[in-house]
Amino acid sequence: MRRAALLALLSHWWRRPFQLVALLLGLATATALWSGVQAINAEARNSYDRAATALGPTPRASIIAPDGAPMPESHFVALRRAGWLVTPVVEGTISTGAGPLRILGIDPFTLPLDDLPDQTGETAFDTAFIGADGPLIVSPETAARLANADLPRRIVQDGVAPGVAYADMAVAQSLLGLEGRISRLIVLDAQPLNRPPLKEIVPTLTLDQPQSRNDMAGLTDSFHLNLTAFGLLSFAVGLFIVRGTIGLAFEQRRPVFRTLRALGLPARTLLWLLLVELLALALVSGAAGIALGYLIASALIPDVAATLRGLYGASVEGTLSIQPIWWVSGLAIAVLGTGLAAISSLWQVARLPLLAPAQPRAWARASEAALIWQGAAAISLAVMAYLTLTFASGLIAGFVMLGALLIAAALALPVILYGAMWLGGRLAKGPLAQWFWADTRQQLPGLSLALMALLLALAANIGVGTMVSSFRLTFTGWLDQRLASELYVTAETDAQAEAMIAFLEPRADAILPLWHVEGDLNGLPGEIYGVADHPTYRDNWPLLDALPDVWDRIAAGEGVLINEQLARRSDIWSGDTVSLPGWQAQILGVYSDYGNPLGQALIGIGALTDRFPAVERLSYGLRVNPAQVDAVSAALVDEFGLDTDNLINQSEIKAFSLSVFERTFTVSRALNVLTLSVAGFAILTSLLTLAAMRLPQLAPVWASGVSRAGLARLELARALVLAGLTLICALPVGLLLAWVLLGVINVEAFGWRLPLFIFPMDWAILAVLALIAAAAAALFPAVRIARMPPARLLQVFAHER
Amino acid sequence: MNAKRLRLLRHAGASGGDIFKTEMVAVCAIMFWLCLALPGLAQGFAGLGAAEDGYAEVRPGAFDFPADHGAHPDFRIEWWYITANLETADGAPLGVQWTLFRSARTAGTGTQTGWNSRQAWMGHAAVTTSDQHFVTERIARGGTGQAGVSLDDGFAAWIDEWGMVGPTFDDVRLSAQGHDFSYDLELSAQGPIVAQGDGGYSVKSASGQASRYYSQPFYGVEGMVTLPSGSVAVTGQAWLDREWSTQLLDADQSGWDWVSLSFDTGEKLMGFLLRDQGDGFTSATWIAADGTPTPYGDGALRLTPLEWHRVAGRDVPVVWRVNLPDRGLDVTIAALNRDAWMETSVPYWEGPVTIAGSHAGRGYLEMTGYE
Question: ipTM higher than 0.90?
Fold first, then answer.
């Protein structure tokens, strides 16, 4: 009996392969986007963790020079001989032909090697590691990237953080040009019983308590939350498809259910069989979805890696590793999603009276009471979004608010459409027009899920599109201001720098020092730049907020300018003070500094050299007549043999910055397109569901004299009207979304606020796309009506019960 | 314990990691610096002769003091090894160990300074009471000044803040500490330096492996030991071993058992058993109360395990019969603390022993290579 029943149930899918495809595809897409995004996030987090634990699983205190500058290595031996168990680290980033590489110089004699990345297989840290001819130890991906680099030999070790190379002190010091110096001393665990205070051994050094070192994870949280939100959105939209298809399959099998029950199959067994069927479908499509997700993630991760590097300086592997947890979580989410989508259908089957008519219900009467509840829910969610915005802060609050806003909009949509249909009916003249509006209104419950999906996709599209375009407009304008110098040069040595200045004096309009030191700004790592007193800055520097005579006072060393990120992070603005290493400085102004993860302060060049006499004086910005840029560059190359790393012209930096920017949003855009196509698909499945059930409604209209072609045209028109109305609803939602992204999420995530610009042309394109999608989705059902044999319409009357 | 550090230290660019190497490397603490320095250990100890190019060779001859108290960087391995049998004012027995090992990472005579030094140093310190055992370890690279031995101003051997420092080799201050113990002892020699083996040439196997080896078994000790329970004044005797070599053990030797015994008569015995597939190789030196040594070659001394104890997952003999018929010596030595396991990079057992039988006294026992 069970076997026969199962066959009877399954036979449905053979007869309607399209439904099966739609169900599998919907579920697979939902799973794919979700698990793809999770995979990307997991990979990135893994990279951050590895970077953060490069020198041990738990953060340890360090001993550093107060200005953070490298210190003589003799401090290491002085501390060890006094009983302080410390291990030296010399670190820095070198540029290679294949991108930057962080060099981590360690002393394996004093660093507990258990703390270094897991060693499976061959030992990389053996005695051959030690000494000036030692190797670099890198991850397989980094090794591949550095394949042709002119560096010491590489040894590949799984588990090493991407973009990081371990080297012995001897090798690292020479690579970094820090012979005889170390960056810091890590204070090891289990210190001996007796040791004098630090001040008695090395009075010039300070103890830096461990901070949570996974700064990268915190910094990039916003980015990953963004991705997660997209994944969730796509998953939700995918579920709309699944919900539609399952609903259809259950409706169409009502006669089968009734017959099986009438033949004696217990309701419980029927439910079990349906559950097993759904589980099998969920597992199959979940597996397909995970595979698809892997493809999506692999395709996107190079861009994600480039974005994270460009935007946050975070190094992430550009390739994906497969982890078992994915398969499990992917399948789980597929099963969960199927269950969620099927729950109401299963509920109905469970409660199906034995002798209920086996007639598919074309429509549930659109209950006004239900609509009122939906409207109320929408309003309370909107209020919640508003309250979140007003009273809460932080990234999570921003996303909670976004979620509430989007769900409120989705819930409000059927209410608005219902109202619009009612209005249309009131205004309509003639019975056919009135029937059209009334019939459309009747169909709303069946279509509203798909339309909600469309609304979400459109709103996300408008929101993200507006954000990206606004950002681009602001960013390019800002780049023009910020990169005022035509050429940027870096000398190799002080002597070369002096020679270069002498050489350039007659050739350039101005030679502006670009000297900087690294140090803590209000307790957070940051950079301090010196700025010359020159119109280049006075005229161009993008100040957001400033005290009077700001540039004169900067030149006089009376205060500092800070970037917007630092200002927002610490909530300090013009007139407040900021703590620099050894200086409580007044803030004279705040400038925008897009794309910089670090806090930054700008002080007069005189103040910089006074307070940080050891500052490297190698980099300069050159103001030259744009027509002579090429000539000056050529002369510099001839005279000093500068390579491309040391001589950059403005247009190259701009092109580079813009490319980082574009890549940043490639991922958003790709996910956007996917979401929209999923929404289009949802409409198609919903319309197909309805088409089969609507014959009893269409037949009388046909019998009253409307041709089949006429009915088909009305079907098309209905889809267009609904899509158009949805689009109109999506516009304000999308703009609100963009505003939240620019004014709330961006500020929390990156520390800068961007102005909102409106791009109506983009909306027009989107509108056309949405209407085409809706029309395309409606076309197939419409054509079916146009070509339906009249006999089938007649049958409706013959079967009248 | 610290498997990665161990691998780092002992693999000298060795090809392929086979089990033989792993086992052999782990066999004993005494061998570890050897392993540390030994390129191509995978070829086994039989390849030692071929693999030693560039290191100095051990030859018999007279010692040159005080120069020989200092380091011999051209030899692969070397140590300054002190064990002390002490007691507190209450008469409670206590053992102290202080060891500084030197090992050359590669052969070569060129001066390699700073981080490029080819020398590696390791210190072990331990305090053993009848029911507690404290141990800690330090590792350093040569060339930086973090560890070394200097004769410039008397005598100084150090690693980090630990030291064996004094105006002369006969009069030194010995200090070391871990996170849960420390000691600070004054050592003064009350007898002469004793050459082990044939005038300081100590043969280790039938095929001729050998080391230069002398001892100072007559140090008197006074000082303080600090344990979690507090600081206590201690007195007693210490025994120093100095040994350096390039090829110490034969290929089939799997570990060794070493004793230094001080009898109430004032006489002393140094003896060791190098275990192999057969009966093993023994060697001993009988030291008269005035310091006159009598060396005994293979077979004269018999070391027989009597009782085994399970510690750190291994079975280790902690009661031995020590028999030197030529001197009428037939004693049973028993560990003061059976759990005196040295949980260091390469672990071994080392602790004080009591002596009963034909002679009475105190001593130290070291056992390596127990897996």
Answer: no
